[in-house]
Amino acid sequence: MRIPRIFTPQALPTELTQGSTHTSNLVLEGSAANHVGRVLRMAPGRELKIFNGEAEGHFAGVITEVTKKTVTVNLTEFIATENESPLSIHLGQAISKGDRMDFTIQKSVELGVKVITPLWTQRCDVKLSGDRLEKKLQHWQQVAISACEQSGRDKVPTIAPPLKLEQWLASIQSDERWVLDPRGNLDDSHPKDITSAALLVGPEGGLTEEEISAAAQHNFKAKLIGPRVLRTETAALTAITLMQNQWGDFL
Q1: What is the dihedral of CA 6, 9, 10, 15, to 10 degrees?
Q2: Tens digit of each residue's pLDDT (9 = 90 or more) over 56-92
Q3: Do 5-80 and 88-247 come out as alike in CATH topology?
Q4: With 0-12 CB in 10 A as exposed, 13-18 as middle and 19+ as buried, what is 18?
Q5: Choices 3.40.1280.10, 3.20.20.140, 3.40.50.920, 3.40.50.970: CATH for 88-247
Q6: Which of 109, 192, 193, 215 measures 20 to 30 Å from 87, CA to CA?
Q7: How far apart are CA 44 and CA 216, in angstroms?
Q8: Bridge partners, 27 (sequence order)
Q9: pTM for this one?
Q10: Residue 186 pLDDT > 60, yes or no?
Q11: Spelled out in words, what is the top-level CATH class assigned to the domain 5-80?
């Protein structure tokens, strides 16, 4: 039986190590307790894997008590994992409409991206500000957390506050930098020994020539990733996979 993986923002014990004979009780509250007790309907005696997104590993535990608002878990040991990509990818994704942004974040996390920054670009039609923007940012972070629960990642990627494209370009320090452009270069020669990469993906209407030029001024290479025009979410995931194949997980 598959053991559910549950995220909690709580601090987790530091005294437990792999193979430890000590145990520690943790009381889950809020959304974590609701998911375990009400959605999954788990009872005492069931096993869980608990992580808080900060360490490369999780805690093995057994449920000891379930109430209407809390779930108590006896944590038994810390289990280290090694499934983070050696390539630190920072995705700058123009904010897209509907559920496309959710899909891009979810799948990017599954593919190993470390940081995702939503971007305001000239052809971005999405209007968000104030409380709506804050709620959307919280929602996107929860999408990333859920993707970690599903995919086995114990370190939760950062969903950064949205930036204007110019601000984001100026902040990037990555070794390799791509901007996706249907008029870009199909050259498949790549430098070696890359440990960090930045990827810029435009909205549904694409980036303007002015924006492509601005990216070039910040040492972004205009990349063509195939003979067909891809949707913004498809383009992002394809490019991430190519980066992982070249320098990361898929070597």
Answers
A1: 70
A2: 899 999 999 999 999 999 998 899 999 999 999 999 9
A3: no
A4: exposed
A5: 3.40.1280.10
A6: 215
A7: 57
A8: 72
A9: 0.91
A10: yes
A11: mainly beta
- Boundaries of every domain in the chain: 5-80, 88-247
Q: Which amino acid is at 143?
A: V
**15 burial class (0-12, 13-18, 19+ CB within 10 angstroms)?**
exposed
For 147-166, b/e burial (b = at least 16 CB within 10 A) is: bbbeeebbbbbebbebbebe
Residue 21 predicted with pLDDT over 60 = no
Residue with tokens 């990555």: 174
pLDDT digits (tens, 9 = 90+) for 86-129: 999 999 999 998 899 999 999 999 999 999 999 999 998 888 88
- In angstroms, rounded to a whole number, what is the distance separating the alpha carbons of residues 152 and 84? 10
Check if the beta carbon of residue 137 is closer than 8 Å to that of residue 129. Answer: no
Centre a 10 Å sphere on the Cβ of residue 100 and count the other Cβ atoms it contains: 19
Other beta carbons less than 10 A from residue 10's beta carbon? 13
Contact 28, 70 (CB under 8 A): yes
Q: What is the 3-state secondary structure (H, E, C) of the chain?
A: CCCCEEECCCCCCCCCCCCCCCCEEEEECHHHHHHHHHHCCCCCCCEEEEECECCCEEEEEEEEEECCCCEEEEEEEEEECCCCCCCEEEEEEECCCCCHHHHHHHHHHHCCCCEEEEEECCCCCCCCCHHHHHHHHHHHHHHHHHHHHHHCCCECCEECCCEEHHHHHHHCCCCEEEEEEEEEECCCCCCCCCCEEEEEECCCCCCCHHHHHHHHHCCCEEECCCCCCCCHHHHHHHHHHHHHHHHCCCC
